[in-house]
Amino acid sequence: EEDMEDCTDGTWKQTGKRYFTCPPRRAFFCTLDALKPDSRFDPTASQKVNPLSEVPMEAVAPDSDAHMITPSTPIEKQVNRYIGEERGIQGHQNSCYLDATVFGLFALSSVFDSMLAEDSEDSAQQEVRELFRNGIVNPLRKNGAARYESVMKLRNKLDNLGRMKGIAHEEKDPEEFLNMLFKHMLAAKPFISIKRPFGVEQEYFVQLFLELTEADKMPDIQALLTRMFKEQSICFTEAPMAILILVPRFGKQFKTFAKVIPNLKLNVAELVENASTAK
Q1: What's the mean pLDDT in 158-185?
Q2: Residue 203 CB partners (closer than 8 Å, separation 6+)
């Protein structure tokens, strides 16, 4: 989507021949020996070539423990499971935003497990929870990978429910997806309570909005969160069970921050109302 160095307008530089037309600096050519076939679409490929083929699609054929959630082991013991080729959640048809969001919620954390474990009287909500639990989260934690077929089944279900039209094939905004997931599909109560000058709001995540300074060339999350709360005179009414933070996005022509450094731990003690008495 952005201009890139050494890219063209669809003309191959070595021959000067145009193969297609696109905006300048958007077309990239590479030699055939730099490519490899996608085994998902190669009917002659051996099933053993792709380790993901050995990962069960539990959303399609749930096992005897289908109503249980595979526990998330400590990060230091589990992180290696997700390192290497064909690990994590397999991408397919613009699913990168959804794959990354779900991985962040469930791969190495059990904070949101209770939302999937609870049964719902609403049949649509219950089916979505089972698709999440049995098709994505359990295979991910057991095998270090989840197949795209399970993700597609979830996306098609959400699309058919009309909660997020186009989600089956189009790229969507992670914030919109999270709102739909927590509020409508998991029926979860907001887990963040923020006191603002005009009142208290219940929210699912914190959006970072603040003025840039010279010190913000390479900030970390802790610094941005702390400064925003102080500048806007806001605070948590109580220590939240979890904090989902939306970092300022990168635009096509302008980047809010060149880089933002994530913190492995956040200290919110000073950001809670009556911080001096907060534990």
Answers
A1: 87
A2: 190, 192, 193, 194
